[in-house]
Amino acid sequence: MAKMKNREILFCGAFTGEIDKLQSEERFWVLETGVGNLNAALRLQSFLLENKEHPPKSIIFLGSAGVYPWVARKEWEGKLGLSRVFTNYEIAYLDKKIRVPEFLKLKLEFTAFEIPAIGNGFFESTANGTGSVTLEDLSPRATERLKTEDIGLENMEVFGLAKVAESFTIPLTAIFSLTNRVGPKGSDEWKSSWRKLSDKLQEAIIASFP
């Protein structure tokens, strides 16, 4: 007999390849959000409005993240990333090459909710939802700002999801497969590793969640 779908946790992923194994398990409530902060935010907002009578109690985003170079590989390689704090810092903003109005809220923090131990443990850090992929070496100024605020991870969707989750007062946690080091070779690293690491992440979720 198939297990009843768990309607307390909504699992989100940017595209099918990051959530396909969960989608094949009837017990998981899964949403494909689309790629990028804007697409992800609009899709989640629409979904929550459609389900406003019975919204999820929490949201878990499953995705891939690059790791900023200030974090030593030995700290994260072989682990999953975990984030409950999210920023929206463009690298040009950190380098003071662009201006962002002071009233915009660029950092969001969520209350932790219990999740089971998964895989080889977590590398926990703030995730920077840039909406793009950084392909340059970071300047000393940008690196120092990231390090000071413990921002170790970069992802294209998570800040958009965080904005919507905050507006609906739903706690959000992100669990990432750590696919690459951010920089000139990051995109190529991601292409060669995301599928294998996504499978491992999804299989760990399936094994760990009831």
Describe the protein's architecture and organization.
The protein has seven helices and ten strands. The chain is α/β, with parallel strands linked by helices and 210 residues long. The chain has one domain: Nucleoside phosphorylase domain (Rossmann fold), CATH 3.40.50.1580. Strands 1, 2, 3, 4, 5, 6, 7, 8, 9 and 10 form a ten-stranded mixed beta sheet that branches. The two termini are 15 Å apart.
| CA gyration radius, whole angstroms | 17 Å
Largest sheet: 10 strands, mixed
| Number of distinct beta strands | 10
Task: Give the oligomer, counting copies of the same chain as homo and different chains as hetero.
Answer: single chain
Number of helices: 7
Number of domains: 1
CATH superfamily: Nucleoside phosphorylase domain
Mean pLDDT: 92
Please give the CATH architecture.
3-Layer(aba) Sandwich
